[in-house]
């Protein structure tokens, strides 16, 4: 992992992407003892449908907490992919939900396609955990935190009754990406 | 309101202070069309009990999203008050939960004391909405967004079944502060 790693979770409002960012920041800091900043910035475009959440993880305190060049970006919708893939660093990663991003942007980054919402809906049985499927996928893709740390952070954020559901979602996301990237 | 206004919500983990920050940022941006950044930074101290969430609101895009001098700080616990009141700007504001911050820090800022958790518990009937009582109080104190915008943002974040409860919580917090500061 580089000294400073920047991730962006983008999609539509209401998809739980802020929560996914918070869980990742907690996995890095509370579970693994690193430094992390999680943020969302809202401009007039916040009134539209696209939404994003950012996480910066570093071994040292983070002085400049604004994402500059994104190492890895998740896009759950076409609009988010078009809008938020622009700051991906050369050689970076873009994970898209293949059912909702039918024309992935082209650039100097690697595009990974997988069904995120449909995995949540059809394999976990609850569309609401799509954000946790996405989180598992991003952890597998970037390795910014270990699979165990990610799972621990997920479980500490959800009520008892939803733990199994979220654990399944996280691990399905993780395993599907691992199967894709080998 | 100054060109750039910085708020901090601090207390214990699990008190919903990140949510309070997100709602305020949404009130400023989605409801009122301003720019806002909401963030939490986690260092090794995130493993302890104190937790904070920050919101910056401005009329223009926010280039430097890290809180520098805090205009208004909420502290729900003594530990948070001791730790996070240090960056309040000269002449700024510190709102404390009077039942949990029995020795408010002294500095070049105005301290406002009110019962936050107890208002949620005894007057709303649900301790879990203490963060929304606190949000109403901070809106009344700082006027960074209007009462109506704050309420709209609260209601758009909570499920139908909890709307009345959260509306009551927000307005009780707002009115208690207004009664205190006149």
Descriptors:
6-stranded mixed β-sheet; globular; alpha/beta; Pyruvate-ferredoxin Oxidoreductase, domain 3; homodimer; 182 residues
Provide an overview of this structure:
Chain A has 182 residues and is of the alpha/beta class. The first copy, chain A, has a single domain (4-181), classed as Pyruvate-ferredoxin oxidoreductase, PFOR, domain III (Pyruvate-ferredoxin Oxidoreductase, domain 3, 3-Layer(aba) Sandwich), CATH 3.40.920.10. The first copy, chain A, contains 6 helices and 6 strands; from the N terminus they run E-H-E-E-E-H-E-E-H-H-H-H. Chain A has a 6-stranded mixed beta sheet with strand order 2-3-1-4-5-6, sandwiched between helices. Chain A starts with a strand and ends with a helix. Chain A binds chain B through residues 18, 22, 25-26, 28-30, 33, 35-44, 46-47, 61-66, and chain B through 18, 22, 25-26, 28-30, 33, 35-44, 46-47, 61-66. Strand 2 of chain A pairs antiparallel with strand 2 (35-42) of chain B.
Please summarize what this structure is.
By secondary structure, chain A is of the alpha/beta class. Chain A contains 6 helices and 6 strands; from the N terminus they run E-H-E-E-E-H-E-E-H-H-H-H. The model of chain A has no long low-confidence stretch (mean pLDDT 93).
């Amino acid at each position: 992992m580089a000294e400073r790693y920047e991730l962006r979770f983008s999609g539509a409002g209401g998809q739980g992407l802020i929560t996914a960012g918070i869980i990742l920041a907690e996995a890095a800091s509370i579970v693994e003892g690193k430094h992390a900043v999680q943020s969302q910035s809202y401009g007039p475009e916040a009134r539209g449908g696209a939404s994003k959440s950012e996480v910066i993880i570093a071994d040292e305190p983070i002085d400049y907490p604004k994402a500059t060049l994104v190492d890895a970006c998740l896009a759950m919708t076409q609009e988010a992919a078009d809008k938020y893939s622009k700051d991906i660093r050369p050689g970076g990663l873009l994970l898209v939900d293949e059912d909702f991003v039918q024309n992935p942007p082209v650039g100097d980054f690697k595009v990974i396609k997988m069904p995120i919402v449909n995995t949540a809906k059809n394999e976990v049985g609850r569309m609401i955990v799509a954000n946790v499927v996405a989180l598992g996928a991003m952890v597998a893709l970037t390795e910014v935190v270990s699979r165990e740390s990610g799972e621990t952070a997920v479980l500490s954020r959800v009520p008892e009754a939803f733990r199994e559901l979220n654990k399944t979602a996280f691990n399905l996301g993780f395993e599907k990406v691992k199967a894709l990237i080998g």
